[in-house]
Every structure is written in structure tokens, then in C-alpha cells.
Amino acid sequence: MQLRSIIKSKPAAKQLARFIPGIGGFLAILLCSTAGELVHAPLLMAPLGASCVIAFVLPQSPLAQPRSLIGGHLLSTLIGLCALAAFGVHAWSLALAVGAAITLMQLTRTLHPPAGADPLLVMLTGASWGFLLTPVLLGAALLVLVALGYHRATGTRYPTAWW
């Protein structure tokens, strides 16, 4: 069977299409990591890997839009930093920070599930206030820019709304 006929077959095309978002995630994490090394500042955190899943697999989702992706990470990180400063790290303060992040993301229309991990990350690592800028703001913004370029290159509409 020729490669052309394999690609044209619906099951094969469907399988091939499942690899494409992985390329977007690869590019986003590679760029964040490389740019961070060049500027000597962290531009990566684990929740951004989960953000890649939403941004590259579900680009039409409200959860993938720049407002949610960037805003959700900023708000949740800020809540984690405030909880850390005010209460320290306890089972109840970790739970309070995550609950507050979920509630405030909903109220501000910045719901982004991977950002729910940000307060835990902040509090368990003892992150400083600078964490809000790098890796959170710059990393999330860079991820959105990569998603924008990626989806333009693949012919997918993204974002559906900027803010």
C-alpha cells in the first residue's frame, strides 16, 4: 500500500491527526525552556505542561483562551503567594488556597484547570513574589504566542476570543 493511500484513508488520517497537537506542546515547552536559559530566568513550571494539553488539543474551549490561560495562572499564583505569606503551609491553608483559586477563577471568567495546581506549587516550594512574573506571566504568555503561531500554521482558529 502506498503512503499516499494510507494518509488518505480516514482511520489513518485520524491517527495521524492525534500526533499534531503533541508537536505544538513540544514546541511550546522547548521554546519556554530555551528562552528561559537564554535570559537566565525560569519560564517553565509543571502546570504549563497541562496547559499545553488544553491549548493544543482543545483550542476552541473557553479554558484554552488567552484570558483563561494567562489570567487563571496569574490569579491562582497570586492566591498561593498571598496564602503562603498570610498563613504559611498547612493542610488547611493549601486547601483554602486551591478552593479560593477555583472560586475566583470562576468569578473572573479566567477558569483554567491547570492553574488550580499553582497555589500548591507556590506554597509547597516556598516561591517568592517574583514567581508571578517568571515563570508564570512570561511563561503563560509565551505559551499563548506559540499556540497562536501553531494554530495559524495548522489552519485552526485560535483564539476564539482574546479577552
From TrEMBL:
Highest taxon above the source species: Bacteria
Protein's UniProt keywords contain Transmembrane: yes
Keyword field contains Zinc-finger: no
Domain spans labelled HPP transmembrane region: 16-159
Keywords tagged on the record: Membrane, Transmembrane, Transmembrane helix
Chain ranges passing through the membrane: 16-36, 42-58, 78-107, 127-150
Family annotation (InterPro entries): HPP (IPR007065), TM_HPP (IPR058581)
Protein's recorded name: CBS-domain-containing membrane protein
Organism: Paenibacillus aceris
